[in-house]
Recover the amino acids of this structure.
């Protein structure tokens, strides 16, 4: 595919990164890939760099633990491509990862950002939906159906977008950035966001080893997110729906 680049933020999960890069090269052997690594430990960085070299991916180092938001912003800023695929290191491409199905609606200028479907243990898990914020009340609501291309406010962290139409992520939020960015796309920098179930990616999270200390610190960032957006109450959830 022309003018598409895959952008991967990685942190302290070299096994996940190698699996993702290997899977990309199975299904998209010629597609440019750039990995940004903010792992604090030099031995892990060295391993990640080796994985990137082996799978013909461009490797970028960042200061330790700059966070998901800052990492994504840097990846987007350095890319020269018209379209970018954004995901983290704990995904894996499969035969269902049809990036062409993501790009077509973007080429038609029907959407600015499209989230793909998620597979966990071979089963679709749907987190996509709508989000509203009014008078300090944050409300989540699921989509009515997950079988077709359609607008959504919030999609999972596997997406394709026109690079120049991507709003920045809030770099104060190292994690728990997901809803904040959805609100940015809806209110601060309005964008046409959608869900494309014709393209799916497997999600295989690793929450052990060195990585755990970075993942298990959500509460301070939840509080910061609520303070930034003036949220005093949350209604509804987007629990995964399977099938």
């Amino acid at each position: 595919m022309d003018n598409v680049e895959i952008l991967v933020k990685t942190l302290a999960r070299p096994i996940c990164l190698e699996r993702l890069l290997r899977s990309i090269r199975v299904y998209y052997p010629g597609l440019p890939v750039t990995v940004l690594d903010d792992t604090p430990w030099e031995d892990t960085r060295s391993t990640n760099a080796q994985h990137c070299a082996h799978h013909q991916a461009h490797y970028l180092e960042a200061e330790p633990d700059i966070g998901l938001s800052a990492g994504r912003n840097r990846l987007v800023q350095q890319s020269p491509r018209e379209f970018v695929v954004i995901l983290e290191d704990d995904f894996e491409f499969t035969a269902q990862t049809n990036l062409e199905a993501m790009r077509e609606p973007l080429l038609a200028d029907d959407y600015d950002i499209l989230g793909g479907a998620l597979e966990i243990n071979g089963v679709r898990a749907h987190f996509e939906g709508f989000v509203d914020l009014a008078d300090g009340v944050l409300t989540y609501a699921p989509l009515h159906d997950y079988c077709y291309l359609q607008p959504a406010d919030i999609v999972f962290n596997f997406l394709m977008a026109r690079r120049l139409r991507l709003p920045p992520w809030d770099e104060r939020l190292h994690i728990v950035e997901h809803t904040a960015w959805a609100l940015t796309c809806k209110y601060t920098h309005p964008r046409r966001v959608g869900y494309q179930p014709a393209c799916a990616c497997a999600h295989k999270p690793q929450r052990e080893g060195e990585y755990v200390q970075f993942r298990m610190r959500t509460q301070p960032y939840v509080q910061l997110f609520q303070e930034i957006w003036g949220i005093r109450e949350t209604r509804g959830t987007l629990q995964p729906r399977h099938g």
About this structure: The chain has one domain: 4-235. The first helix runs from residue 14 to 27. The chain has a mean pLDDT of 94.
